[in-house]
């Protein structure tokens, strides 16, 4: 444990599984108290909370569906109230619609925009009530926003590309407040939703320079660095942690 985040408080949206859980655990390993939001799986969220507490850190799980902007904002406020402060916001929660553009119905379009674009915006607005100098805002995008190698990814790619504009413009806006804003674009990552031994995994891995999937810990390591004091001069950046997928 490096403890570079000792006495810091972080919130990770969508932190009950996959990349989000990996990020939550890594931040706790580095010394932060961590809150995580989840949409419906309370048991998985509780498991992550127990893992964080086993590291000697405080943890809380908050149910908040990204389609509900009030729930998102209230969850961020609750973190600051229950854990005493807020230093790090990680916008991770997302939905992953797949299908030809003319076959996705408007319900899917609206859900994607709500969860992948509006929710991060709302979470940032709420976080700014609590973040002080040295605060960190880190969003999780996707390699698909840089390179869509399969058809059917238009809606998802559009939603993740929106985070580039949020990151770069917000970095400029918050620079005078000494709050950094960065974006991490994961490549193929071994999770329940996208397993490294899935039916298309070999083809997907073949698009990377390293020829393999990432682990959630690979993505979490970059997030932890961006959250640390050592990254204090890094803002407005888009960091591709994709094994060379976009090379």
UniProtKB/TrEMBL annotation:
Residues 8-207 form the Ketoreductase domain. Pfam families: adh_short_C2. Keywords: Oxidoreductase. It comes from the Bacteria. Belongs to the short-chain dehydrogenases/reductases (SDR) family. This is 3-oxoacyl-ACP reductase FabG.
